[in-house]
Fold this sequence. Notes:
By secondary structure, this protein is mainly α. The chain folds into 2 domains: 3-144; 167-496, Neurolysin, domain 3 (Orthogonal Bundle). 64% of the residues lie in helices and 3% in strands. The chain contains 20 helices and 3 strands. A hairpin with a 2-residue loop joins strand 2 and strand 3. Helix 1 (3-33) packs antiparallel against helix 2 (40-59), helix 2 runs antiparallel to helix 5 and helix 5 (100-123) packs antiparallel against helix 6. The longest helix has 31 residues, at 3-33. It starts with a helix and ends with a helix. 40% of the residues are buried. Zinc ion is lined by residues 264, 268, 294, 297.
Amino acid sequence: MNVKETIEKLNELELQEFAYGHAMGILSYDDETVAPKGSVIPRGKTMGVLSELSYKLSTGDGAREILDALKEHYDELSPEDKRRADLREKRMRELRAIPVEEYVAYSQLVNDAANVWREAKNKSDYKLFEPYLGRIVEAQKRFAGLVRPDMDPYDYCLDQYEEGLTREKCEAFFKTLRERIVPLIDKVKAARPIDDAFVHVRFPIADQRELSQRLMDIMGLPRDNCILGEVEHPFTNGFSKHDVRITTHYYEDNFLSSMYSVIHEGGHALYDLHSDDRFCFTSLEGGVSMGVHESQSRFYENIIGRSREFVGLIYPELLRLCPRLAAHSVEELYRAANVALPSLIRTEADELTYPLHIMVRYEMEKAMIGGDVKTSELPEMWNALYKEYLGIDVPDDRSGILQDSHWSGGGIGYFPSYALGSAYGAQLLHKMREDFDVSGAIRQNELVKINNWLEDRIWKYGSLYKPAELMERAFGGPFDPKYYTDYLERKFTEVYGL
Ligand code: ZN
């Protein structure tokens, strides 16, 4: 095969891989949103068949020939195709190392585990979920040993979500955060509490749905390519730049919860919606890593969404939909949206205490993968870490170890990317402010300026660069968590008048 033929074959292969991924993704989106309970059986079968076909496609002789041809012509390839070749080789190594029966059994396991986790969470009974979590941890350890015997198994897990992230980097990063954030939280705890009782006003769900649409307008989310679904635990599925699904969960007495979910998931969606056209249906389309993804979603949710300017921008809309809020000023609402207090639930946590929730999970994952703890002891470990890090008692498994869906889907190693993403976001803000008046753009409902800046530096590149390289290009220098800790210190010192 010459270069031209090789790239044509590669395009064809990646389109087919996209199609399997799209079909399986739609099935899980359907599962999370509208599918009846009984669908678990046929879906398990269909997922089994499709994942086997997709596995064979990506590891078979055809794919191997394409990879060999790519390597043979490597020096003649464009930078884009070189990156595709590198990604292919990495993926081929991973897939080939795992026997097909194990790969299929694992896909069935996580399908079952997701359903058992839901039931266990409803009943607040960890015992139901424990055997599944045990099998998932064992499978992850086994895969790590098969694919990268040279690597620390937890580094392998981290690398799945953030290429190049290691336990060593995490340790240094979390140490910096702990040193600056823990004393800050202590000061906030000693400060005069902020009254946020009024945000728990009854806000009918029909009106919150309208609020969501308004938020999507402000963020510039095109409805032809992005819709909002309702689920228990909000997430985003970005299938292609033409088809992105975001989700939220409404609570009648807590409109801020859904409002910030929509903004968070909307941030993920914007990233997926703005890959360069030439990457469509290739391995370069869509976000490069979970860390970069979370940098976009948490940037929107917190840095933009919880800014004084954004609260001011949405305030008239809130009064229109929920007139009882009129008894409170924009300033009161801004402060209420930024109450920082140690709490139980990660997804509801404030911007300041949030990284501590991540550190708990990081310690848990290290222990699970390192084999330092029995699965039966995990709830106890969880509760002890919440006491140590956040100073609070966990009353039950539902609001403790069962609160997140990640582990039930095999997502061990995912959590650190939330904290890393938050820190990336703060450094992006610093850089953005050198170029234009970010607060002014929000105040004037011109988020398009922010979108254009991010599209230019992050979104359009899809998966072309490795995550750390992409961020360094955007920052114009190395990553430094001090922008994040400075940002938190400035913001919460001001909000709490410390
Ligand atoms: Zn997210």
